[in-house]
């Protein structure tokens, strides 16, 4: 893809349970934005298919799905959304959460996305996030969120692999939002960051 063809993209970033999916969905409901959660793409896979079994193998242990598999699935899914008219790349900004998960994936995605902004939902209380994830498992029937040791492993994966993305991307594209606030306050801060980021980009 050329620079002109790359998807204008905002990344919603943060630890497990920081509210990436919630904030991404809310932002995606606004005109001019389209939200895609990579985890939802994986969870829709047929669990009896080869791809579905591969995802369950990794997610049920708290480990990241291999890079090539992740990027291939994401690329095919987003192209399908564009070709069927659900996502309009020329008119909408793509809001991603759950991808990229490490620097290697970020490098692989550079030819497909034009990063406009990274919103980092920063949370300091890991125990509170674990409790939030457990509640989510009950409400959303997410089996990969049901066991505390699996959740803790996801935090270790974030610390050793995902957090490095904050050093990989240019600091001027990163905005920090306090994820410990009420969701509506977080959304207000996210929208303020997006407005400022888009204004800076247009100058």
Structure description:
The protein is of the alpha/beta class. It has a single domain (7-202), classed as P-loop containing nucleotide triphosphate hydrolases (Rossmann fold). It is 51% helix and 16% strand. A five-stranded parallel β-sheet has the order 2-3-1-4-5. The chain is globular, with a radius of gyration of 16 Å. The model has no long low-confidence stretch (mean pLDDT 87).
Topology order in helix (H) and strand (E) letters: EHEHHHEHEHHHEH
Question: Beta-sheet strand percentage?
Answer: 15-25%
Task: Characterize the largest beta sheet: strand count, sense, and whether it forms a barrel.
Answer: 5 strands, parallel
Helix content: 40-55%
Distance, first to last CA: 25 Å
Total number of beta strands: 5
Give me some keywords for this one.
alpha/beta, Rossmann fold, 16% strand, 51% helix, globular, 203 residues, single chain, 5-stranded parallel sheet, 9 helices
């Amino acid at each position: 893809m050329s620079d002109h063809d790359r998807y204008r993209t905002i990344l919603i970033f943060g630890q497990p349970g920081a509210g990436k999916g919630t904030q991404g969905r809310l932002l995606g409901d606004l005109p001019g934005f389209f939200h895609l959660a990579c985890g939802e793409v994986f969870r829709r896979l047929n669990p009896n298919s080869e791809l579905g079994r591969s995802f369950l193998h990794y997610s049920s242990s708290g480990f990241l799905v291999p890079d090539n598999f992740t990027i291939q699935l994401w690329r095919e899914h987003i192209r399908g959304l564009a070709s069927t008219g659900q996502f309009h790349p020329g008119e909408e900004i793509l809001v991603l959460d759950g991808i990229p998960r490490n620097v290697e994936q970020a490098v692989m995605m550079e030819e497909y996305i034009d990063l406009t902004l990274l919103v980092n939902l920063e949370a300091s209380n890991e125990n509170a996030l674990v409790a939030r994830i457990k509640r989510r498992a009950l409400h959303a029937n997410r089996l990969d969120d049901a066991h505390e040791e699996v959740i803790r492993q996801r935090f270790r994966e974030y610390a050793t692999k995902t957090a490095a993305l904050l050093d990989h991307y240019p600091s001027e594209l990163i905005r920090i939002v306090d994820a410990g606030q009420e969701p509506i306050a977080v959304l207000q801060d996210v929208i303020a960051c997006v407005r400022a980021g888009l204004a800076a980009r247009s100058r």
